[in-house]
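Lab meeting, item 3. Inverse folding demo.
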């Protein structure tokens, strides 16, 4: 009796642009809701942070857990999050680990956006998220960010979604043809 090694299933990896746009769409939705509760004072508004954390948890943890690994941004750009080993939607603990790290970086960006008018050095709060997401550029095969590696997850292309990027490209191309 011989044991054959079965190669792991290969999933279509997503490109960096679509991943960035999906993260940006999720961030924009949560940030707009939390920024309405902000004040014009310099510093950190704790109510705004609480609303951001709750909104991020709902949009990036609970929604993907119940929606086949897709948040609103990932659905709009045909992406989903899967576990590396099993190729299934991560459990709640893995999603909490993953989104806790990227959520902290997004929260720092939110604080930077709220304070950049009063304090231009607040732009330095973008660095943790840039380092976390920038790690994917140095992993050409798996394209995993630091929070993906920690939680043992990956972002892959999906057939289920809205295909917002493709629809925008078609619209721009149609507008270019009409202008000519």
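The presenter then showed the designed sequence:
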């Amino acid at each position: 009796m011989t044991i054959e090694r079965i190669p792991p299933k290969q999933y279509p990896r997503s490109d960096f642009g679509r991943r960035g746009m999906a993260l940006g769409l999720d961030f924009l939705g949560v940030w707009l809701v939390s920024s309405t509760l902000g004040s014009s004072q310099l510093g950190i508004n704790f109510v705004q942070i609480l609303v951001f954390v709750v909104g991020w948890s709902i949009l990036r943890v609970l929604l993907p857990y119940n929606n086949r690994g897709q948040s609103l941004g990932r659905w709009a750009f045909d992406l989903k999050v899967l576990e590396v080993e099993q190729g299934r939607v991560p459990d709640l603990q893995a999603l909490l680990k993953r989104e806790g790290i990227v959520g902290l970086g997004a929260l720092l960006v939110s604080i930077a956006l709220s304070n950049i008018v009063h304090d231009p050095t607040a732009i330095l709060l973008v660095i943790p998220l840039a380092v976390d997401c920038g790690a994917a550029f140095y992993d050409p095969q798996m394209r995993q960010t630091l929070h993906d590696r920690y939680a043992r997850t990956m972002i892959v292309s999906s057939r289920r979604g809205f295909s917002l990027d493709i629809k925008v490209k078609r619209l721009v191309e149609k507008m270019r043809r009409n202008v000519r």
